[in-house]
Amino acid sequence: MDQNPNQGEYIVVKAKDQGVQVIGLTRGQDTKFHHTEKLDKGEILIAQFTNHTSAIKIRGKAVVMTKYGTVETDI
What we know:
This protein has one domain: TRAP-like (Immunoglobulin-like, Sandwich), CATH 2.60.40.50. Helices cover 0% and strands 55% of the residues. One of its GO terms (biological process) is DNA-templated transcription termination. One of its GO terms (molecular function) is RNA binding.
């Protein structure tokens, strides 16, 4: 199965508290916020890095799962 070069890695974010923010940041010369999601405790978001998204910022207590492993925020 060929992977589309325009599709990037996926991450899974699971909120451990109310109000966890997941913020997508743009690619390019000027990095800007382009999308924000707010998760309630127990909610899960599956996010993808794309041609437009170069970074994802997470605020609040959450578990982040990638193909490289699992990380928990310390906040």
